[in-house]
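Tip: read the tokens left to right.
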């Protein structure tokens, strides 16, 4: 499996933490009002315009801001919610240091894999961790190994096989042309251009993984480039009456670019339904998706990359 679906726990799918207390102005105001009326029953019939009512509203609002500030602070101790320097502190607990210009998303994934890194690169998770650490440009990783089965040789051919020799038949080469026992195929997608790593990057990752304190004695890491399917996105939009065309187009383009960035990963399919969802922003009445014409299905070692986005406004449909 690829890095994007390796972890057994998806942080984005975790329920809201009980550490975060839901706060609403109306609830806080009613609690404050009840406390005031309990202490001073004569204040129970105040008009909404009374200065005391206004003071209670101010106090309730200030408490709302304070509790919200506490909630925001509490979020910063959660790996799923922490950002910026607070995420750096969480990483420091696991001896994971942010690389130069590394995004929160990538850094968070490395922190989550930190315990895997305590091992050498034998387990799959450890290979993910060490490959990400090898080069800041690594965006996604897929790890697998070739599979072999013992070849049974019957007489008289078996008479020609040397004593203590076992013949193996490769049943799954893991995209390696010369697969051998001990090989580990590591497919890499980068965040540069369409994601295909250059030879210098492949060499740098290979040399890092071959360090004696990282590579298991019996493993031979083989770094491979991801297969990238390039496509062009062309769409025609029809708008409802009213919204400014340039404003709608800008919103749609931002939505599409974010969707494409999210799905520029290994084993992520480019589904037409997802593109339609990204294109259907506020003010858009109808979408004609001209390209791609069909879903782009990817294997665990493949990714899709959009080379060009062409969005045109054809007019208003109503």
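Filled-in amino acids:
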């Amino acid at each position: 499996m690829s890095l994007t679906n390796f972890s057994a726990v998806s942080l984005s799918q975790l329920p809201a933490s009980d550490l975060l207390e839901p706060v609403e102005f109306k609830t806080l105001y009613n609690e404050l009002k009840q406390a005031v009326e309990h202490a001073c029953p004569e204040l129970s019939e105040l008009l909404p315009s009374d200065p005391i009512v206004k003071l209670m509203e101010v106090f309730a609002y200030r408490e709302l801001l304070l509790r919200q500030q506490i909630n925001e602070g509490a979020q910063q101790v959660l790996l799923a919610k922490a950002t910026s320097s607070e995420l750096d502190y969480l990483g420091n607990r696991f001896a994971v240091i942010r690389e130069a210009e590394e995004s929160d998303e990538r850094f968070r994934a490395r922190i989550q894999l930190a315990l895997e890194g305590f091992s050498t690169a034998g387990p799959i998770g450890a290979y993910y961790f060490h490959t990400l650490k090898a080069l800041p440009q690594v965006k996604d990783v897929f790890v697998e190994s070739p599979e072999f089965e013992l070849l049974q040789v019957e007489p008289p051919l078996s008479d020609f096989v040397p004593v203590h020799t076992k013949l193996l038949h490769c049943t799954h080469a893991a995209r390696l042309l010369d697969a051998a026992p001990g090989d580990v195929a590591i497919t890499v997608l980068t965040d540069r251009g369409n994601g295909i790593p250059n030879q210098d990057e492949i060499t740098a990752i290979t040399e890092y993984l071959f360090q004696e304190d990282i590579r298991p004695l019996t493993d031979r890491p083989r770094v491979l480039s991801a297969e990238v399917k390039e496509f062009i996105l062309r769409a025609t939009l029809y708008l409802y009456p009213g919204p400014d065309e340039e404003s709608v187009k800008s919103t749609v383009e931002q939505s599409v670019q974010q969707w494409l960035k999210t799905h520029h990963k290994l084993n992520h399919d480019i589904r037409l339904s997802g593109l339609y969802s990204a294109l259907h922003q506020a003010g858009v009445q109808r979408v004609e998706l001209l390209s791609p014409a069909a879903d782009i299905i990817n294997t665990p070692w493949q990714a899709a990359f959009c080379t060009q986005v062409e969005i045109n406004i054809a007019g208003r449909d109503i």
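The chain has three domains: 18-75, 117-227, 228-316. The mean pLDDT is 87.
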